[in-house]
Amino acid sequence: MTLSEALAVLAPSIPDGTVCVHANGYIGRAGCAARDRDECFYMIGSMGLASSIGLGVALAQPRRRVLVLIALGPPGPPAQRIPHTPEAMVARLRRALGTER
After folding, report:
1. What's the pLDDT tens digit per position in 27-40?
2. Which domain covers residue 14, as residue numbers?
3. pTM score, two decimals?
4. Kind of pairing, strands 19-22 and 66-69?
5. For the chain, which terminal residue's Cβ has fewer other Cβ atoms within 10 angstroms, N or C?
């Protein structure tokens, strides 16, 4: 599964109003293509700071949900060994955000 395919499954499950901070690089472009919204912030030219920005937003706006999307390395055999299906990732996201069905 490509990153774009995974985001296509994940993006519709992100509740409206959730602030999404996308890390620098392809995940930002793929995230924008999957579901661009006013609440999305795309890191351009600043590697490694998405989690810090997400933490800052969460501290400044404690009533808002904040999701930080970071892709660590290219997909390949090590990533394929992780026992998480897109459905499991969506379920985990829903539990974390308190939006389980």
Report:
1. 888 888 999 999 99
2. 3-97
3. 0.68
4. parallel
5. C
